[in-house]
Structures
1.
Amino acid sequence: MNPEELEEDYEERPSFNEEIDSAAIEDAVRSMLVAFGEDPQREGLLNTPKRVGRMYPELLSGYRTDVDKLVNKAIFNVTYDDMVIIRDIEYYSLCEHHMLPFIGRAHVAYIPKGQVIGLSKIPRIVDMFARRLQVQERMTRQIADFVNDLLHPQGVAVVVEGLHMCGMMRGVKKHDARMTTSTMLGLFRKSINTRQEFLDHINRGEAPLRI
Ligand SMILES: [Zn+2]
């Protein structure tokens, strides 16, 4: 793998090397409370700015994930080339248009070409991209590209299902709150049979997505 390639996101935005400014978030939340007409001094709200200031670094930790640490020593050489599928990976993200949650599950598959990654790493890769301000389409693509750049497999497939609070909570439901996005690379794009095998697998026994 080429770490520079994987970290290009970081280089585009050098400010991500610095910690999130929790104090600035606290100030902003205090201003928002005042803008709502609330009293930031009342007991229930007194510590809210501080809580929110501490919360965002966790919700947005994906910008600062140490990629080398994440994949460290978890890539193995193999001779088999059967499809590897990890389905129903829970994720929690924030839509970048409203900063409201969208949550759901991701299904990731790849067909190795000499290398596999430890199974437990795939959910962490999903997390790395989910814990950012996102749009679901881009997150899906980023997960697929990352696995593709990391393992150079014969193909990668990612399907993401999401429920978007910005669609569900707001009065004017302009877009469907439930969304499915997918990215198919390599064999999954070229071969209908391969793609169908993956889709059959993730649809088997699937319960509808709900909160
Ligand atoms: Zn939104």
2.
Amino acid sequence: MNDNHSRRYGPGVDQAKQVLNGGLVQLVDHMGSDLSVVRNARVSYDAAWRAGNDKGSDARLIHYLLENGHNTPFEAPYITFEIMAPIFVIRQWHRHRTQSYNELSARYRPLPEHFFIPDAHTVTLQSEDNKQMRTKEQHPDANHIRQLMEKSNQASFKIYHELLALGTPRELARSVLPLGTYTHMFASANLHNWMRFLKERLHEHAQYEIQVYAIEIAKILAELYPVTMQAFKDINTEKPYEEQIPVNTPGDLDISMRQPTAIYTDESGTDHEYPVYHYGQLTDRED
Ligand SMILES: Cc1cc2nc3c(=O)[nH]c(=O)nc-3n(C[C@H](O)[C@H](O)[C@H](O)COP(=O)(O)OP(=O)(O)OC[C@H]3O[C@@H](n4cnc5c(N)ncnc54)[C@H](O)[C@@H]3O)c2cc1C
């Protein structure tokens, strides 16, 4: 089947953006533009022909619609993103019921040894005045904490590989994997529902690890729907997305870093191959 239709990347948005130590956000597909919003709004008074003739009034109309909750015109554009994120982020994400999801199945194939380790500056202390949140200052033992997290994840993956080598069904073996394991999905929604997602997940009360995905999505949507996203920013946020929180994003993700090459040797000396993702982890592991 011809894929020309589904990969219409716009300028500046054709790269996967690395998020956290090994996640990604990538635009897969998009439909419509700011003009689609205007046309949909103006059909209600039979004036679709005016859309695009007066950029100033189109922008004012978009701002008015968004500010006053006239949401349906924003449901015309539709966008799909590819997301790789730790399971605990995806659990928060899936609470957004107006998106459609398709996710990697750990029943079909083993999960790669690919897990979340926080950057040191994001390892802080439990907040005392907000039960859900953490403080902003770095924990004095941040690196020790990261090492413990890595050790725990490695131990879980070792047992996972042992279980698979014993012939344990994949659907059972996966139950020993930690919440920091990366999984992979496509998420699709219309522009209105992406903005609803952003409003909640760009908020400073949202967990840092989902905020960084929301920021990348906001930046991509701003390339595709600049007038709508400007209005969204003016109405909902005081600062540019990039300045909202310190995002430690190393830049575009080199997909070639995905290397399906880990070997696990069981007690009988038999080698088993498993996929592994390398994103510059804490140690100099050679596996
Ligand atoms: C900072 C933060 C902290 C949170 N903490 C917790 C927590 O401690 N525990 C927890 O369980 N969740 C928590 N959540 C998740 C939160 O409660 C929502 O589930 C999540 O934000 C999705 O919001 P939503 O339901 O409005 O979104 P969506 O599912 O995208 O729905 C959007 C809107 O569509 C409508 N809608 C969708 N489905 C239905 C339906 N079936 N029936 C009627 N109307 C519907 C509703 O108006 C809804 O607001 C937290 C979220 C945030 C941002």
